[in-house]
Amino acid sequence: MATELDVVDVEPREDWRIWVEFEDGVRGEVDVSNLQNLHVFAALHDRSVFEKVYVHPILKMVCWGEDLEISSCSLYASLISERV
Question: Which of 2, 32, 64, 68 is 20 to 30 A from 39, alpha carbon to alpha carbon?
């Protein structure tokens, strides 16, 4: 079973993208605009909510609140696939 890497930094960017950095140094921008189409992420339609992205201090995941987070594995996979 793969272990999730901790996210160490995240920043909102233009066009519903986030810049994310992992503990192993992998970093880059990920397009998360597709999340807006999922009911649970509907709040991200509001740019002011989207811009409040942060790294959860305990879980080390990208979050927009206590009930709104994204899998570190999927973000990492997106970054790695762009390098191939």
Answer: 2
